[in-house]
Amino acid sequence: MKTHAARGPRRWPTPSTSTRTRPWRRSSGSSSGTFGGKQDLYLAALGRYRDRFSRPAFRALAEDPRGLPAVAAFFAALVDARCTGEYAGWGCLVAHAHAGAEHATPEVRALLDHHHDELRDALHAALRTARDLGRLAPAADPGTTADVLALLAYGVNLRSRAGADAATLRTTTDATLAAITA
């Protein structure tokens, strides 16, 4: 079973701080001294994850001039990231934070809400482009559809952690995109 310093053992419950810091040969106390406590460490990890992984993907999606093909590429990359490679089956740190008790603090909740807004805004931008190119189904409102697609992204993250295979997830994302394509 693989381990990852920021996320702990694959498909196991959320690890303790000592489990997270063991690969670095640090004690949980040294991490607490650096970050100010378990909650601050968690918030720093979420912020780094957002900055390193989410924001670049969202920016690329929002700026892509292709519209729906960009959305399809976003979901294909998401499924690939969640189902293949070193971190397959781990899901998404942000999706786990939404579902776990960690979201109870105002700071984490604010970060998660902002992350969701960034995802939704990137999808909305791509869908407006698709509409402008005449490729979005007339009944598909870009704003509402962006909300639905954001929820689909969270579903891909959660289902991949539960063991859903890439083919099943691709079938679902492809069918969703076909439903909104003109």
UniProtKB/TrEMBL annotation:
The keyword Transcription regulation applies. InterPro entries: Tet_transcr_reg_TetR-rel_C_sf, TetR_C. Residues 67-174 form the Tetracyclin repressor-like C-terminal domain. Residues 11-33 have a biased composition (Low complexity). Keywords: Transcription, Transcription regulation. Residues 1-10 have a biased composition (Basic residues). The keyword Transcription applies. It comes from the Bacteria. This is TetR-family transcriptional regulator.
